[in-house]
Amino acid sequence: MADLRYGENPHQTASWYRDPAAASGLHQAEILHGKALSYNNILDLDAACAAVAEFRLAAAVAVKHSNPCGVGTGAELSVAHAVRRAIAADPVSVFGGILAVNREVDFDAAEAMASIFLECVIAPSFSAEGLERLKKKKDVRILKWPNLAGHKPAWQFRTVAGGYLVQSADRTMDWSDQWKIIGEPPSPEIKSDLLLAWKVCAHLRSNAIAVASEGCTVGLGMGQVNRVDAVQHAIARMRKHHPNAVRPVLASDAFFPFPDSIELAAEAGIRWIIQPGGSIRDEEVIATARSLGVTQVFTGTRHFRH
Prior knowledge:
About 30% of the residues lie in helices and about 25% in strands. By secondary structure, it is of the alpha/beta class.
């Protein structure tokens, strides 16, 4: 147990407890540089690590207020590429965020991180040159967690008035031949971006929409009380930061109740959508997508996050 300076706000008290039954966790992370963690730092670190652990390729996930705000992937050994993509995804939102990386941070990756203010950086390891470069940013907290990419919690716990909720952990899967493709079969590049958007979407607060292009997110919409607003937010961010995005694709954490979101996506140049399906209006949504030249992939699995 550790007492924290305060909770989400300065007038709240807070403590950090370790689950004695957990085989691994954030408590194993070693702070290599910077001041003690805050309550909000710990929440965001947990969200960032959970999201980056979804990826097999080198990946970087930036988080603000428990939501991914910039996600980038790179070739197997190109963590710097992933970091640059994550920051460029939405540099306005990434500023002041938490960045998690699933590979060792070398000098090039650290140099990319140094281009923007970050509260925390967490990775399985750091090269001597990478650590030295990052330490020049005196306000950044640097954490080393060797098991970051391998941490797969089995259960999730939430407090409610007078008690607790317990559920098995939500996990995404890699591309499945069981998914239903309605339209043109995707190329390997499109398939990769669809999967990226799908994995990211599962870590956004519902209602959630993720738009991706060329290995990174280009527009995210989350925490909306209707799906069409989430689509509009994601498209607005894409138009602001990536107006020339190449072959953007869109993921939705749950089905589309009406065709209006499909129409908005098509108007924005999005021709590929991945979603669970299961709406009573699926046929209407499918017909609209076909008429607009939009291919859909139905996964059959919802990924709400409340």
